[in-house]
Write a structure and sequence with these properties.
- This protein has about 525 residues and is of the alpha/beta class.
- Helix content is about 25%, strand content about 20%.
- A nine-stranded mixed beta sheet has the order 1-4-5-7-6-8-9-12-13, with helices on both faces.
- Helix 2 crosses helix 3 and helix 4 runs antiparallel to helix 6.
- The radius of gyration is 25 Å and the shape is globular.
Length: about 525
């Protein structure tokens, strides 16, 4: 589908035509009067140019300044649900001026348990400017409920319809309504539609490609929360229990997980890891650009011959290797992938890396047990309605859809290898790696934590990449990344199975001196 271009001749009467086209078909306030079955438009108001949004969470950046736009608030299918609580799919749509609109829709994914309608600026993984400032009409949704107790409140799941909306229905519903509003406001429909999300938003993107294959032309799925039950089994049970087997004990005999490794031991481990794998890309720069080629064995830092300084006790090495290998059941079957040895796994901040667990995790205290019944735990880990497991994307790909996956190698919540495993299964189901690469690519991001942060280059334009692929037929292959962790540095992030490799010549902080190999 080609974007239409209308040339207005500079002649008598031309100015009047241009003036008419510069105004929306209905006023911003008039959108509130649009009648759509099951939809309440609760507000429609012009937002002035220069608006700056505050940080969405501690540590995040401000967003803006934004261009002038019409902001539409609404609710789909408002109703009384379980326990008399009010439910409905809340949404917002931001509409740039007629002259500023690029003709496309971009929908942004959610995070955690959703329950909040984030401002539809489209600021994540869209390059130097949020999507709204790039001319996109942008939509967002709370996926059908209001969070009452923070971003990880899943109490809404007691209501069946709210559960279904969150699992897969809401975003497709909102996309349909957004397209109707766009068509009314601009007197024509969106030429192309895109979805960009990370974490829960990454899962949502996968769900859309699988259950609603013709709603979006291009999808970006980052660090997807694909199998939260299984990742929680790995992060909150398997890994701490493995560490407990070698952790020091308190006076009552309970393992002290937060003392499993000292700062010095973590430093010894990380020095050995980086010495082994950092320079494989041709330059030692604090990043492991080729994680799949990193053949680091923690056993190299195991204490030998009674030595206790500058090394780790053999039982601690065994615990680390077991933890990073991921959980297996009693039959030896891998129930969740292992984790990559990467540059940020020893982070000791508010959300620690996998080598620095404290006493509490994301969802409560870590276990003090030294054994885990994986068979039992795995029985309750799956949630089929929420998990985006299908690899049959034949309709999506045949209709010209493109989907890009990316995942931070140091993600402490979801294993990058789980996303990679899905991508490999996608290739196997759809004609092999070369065939699936015609419409899907996977990017591993060195050093990046969950959806950003870490010793990483975590700023990149995946929206532009998928847009060029959909509209111009140009597959990304690589995307240029920068980041606050390494000021002045740029690198290509390469589509799997390639990685960035230094040419051996020129500035090692310049992306043009690296190629994908």
């Amino acid at each position: 589908m080609m974007r239409s271009m209308v040339l207005i001749p500079l002649m008598a009467g031309g100015c009047a035509i241009a003036m008419a086209q510069s105004e929306p078909a209905v006023s911003c306030a008039g959108i509130a009067d649009i009648k759509i079955d099951g939809v309440e438009i609760t507000k429609a108001a012009m937002i002035p140019a220069g608006t700056i949004l505050p940080p969405a969470y501690p540590g995040a950046s401000t967003v803006g300044p934004l261009p002038a736009h019409c902001l539409v608030d609404g609710v789909i299918n408002r109703r009384k649900g379980a326990d008399g609580e009010e439910f409905g799919i809340g949404f917002e749509v931001a509409l740039p001026g007629v002259g500023a609109w690029n003709g496309d829709l971009m929908m942004q994914g959610g995070g955690g348990g959703n329950g909040v309608v984030a401002y539809p600026a489209g600021a994540s993984f869209t390059g130097d400017k949020p999507a709204l400032a790039r001319g996109f009409a942008v939509a967002s949704s709370d996926t059908g409920h209001k969070a009452r107790n923070g971003g990880f409140d899943f109490s809404f799941m007691r209501d069946q319809q709210a559960y279904l909306d969150f699992a897969y229905r809401a975003n497709a519903e909102v996309a349909g309504i957004a397209k109707k509003i766009i068509a009314q406001y601009y007197s024509k429909g969106a030429a192309y539609s895109y979805f960009v999300g990370c974490s829960t938003g990454g899962r949502e993107g996968m769900i859309l490609s699988q259950r609603y294959p013709t709603v979006f032309n291009g999808i970006v799925s980052g660090d997807p929360a694909m199998r939260t039950g299984f990742s929680n089994l790995a992060i909150s049970q398997w890994i701490p229990v493995a560490y407990n087997q070698a952790a020091p004990r308190d006076a009552s005999g309970k393992p002290e997980l937060d003392k499993f490794l000292s700062d010095g031991e973590r430093k010894v481990f990380m020095n050995a890891l980086m010495n082994r794998c950092d320079a494989r890309d041709g330059v030692a720069d604090g990043m492991i650009s080729d994680p799949m080629g990193c053949d680091f064995d923690p056993a190299v830092v195991a204490c030998k011959d009674g030595k206790s300084e500058g090394c780790l006790a053999p039982e601690k090495i065994a615990a680390i290797k077991k933890a990073f290998a991921g959980p297996k059941n009693s039959y030896g079957t891998q129930v969740y992938p292992g984790f990559l040895y990467d540059a940020d796994i020893a982070e000791t901040g508010a959300v620690p890396g996998l080598l620095a667990l404290g006493t509490h995790g994301l969802f409560g205290p870590y276990p003090t047990a030294t054994e885990i019944d994986v068979d039992k735990e795995a029985l309750h880990a799956s949630d089929p309605l929420v998990e985006p497991a299908s690899t049959n994307l034949s309709t999506f790909s045949a209709s010209g859809g493109k989907i890009i996956f990316f995942h931070g190698d140091s993600d402490p919540w979801f294993s990058a290898l789980d996303t990679l495993g899905y991508y490999q299964s996608l290739a196997a189901t759809n004609g092999g790696p070369e065939k699936v690469a015609e419409w899907s690519e996977m990017f591993l991001v060195p050093g990046m934590r969950h959806c950003g942060g870490g010793p990483a280059l975590d700023q990149f334009d995946m929206l532009g990449a998928v847009m060029n692929w959909v509209e111009k037929g140009i597959a990304p292959g690589s995307v240029i990344a920068t980041g606050k962790a390494f000021p002045g540095r740029s690198r290509p992030i390469c589509a799997y199975p390639r990685h960035a490799q230094y040419s051996g010549h020129g500035d090692t902080n310049a992306a043009q001196n690296f190629s994908c190999e």
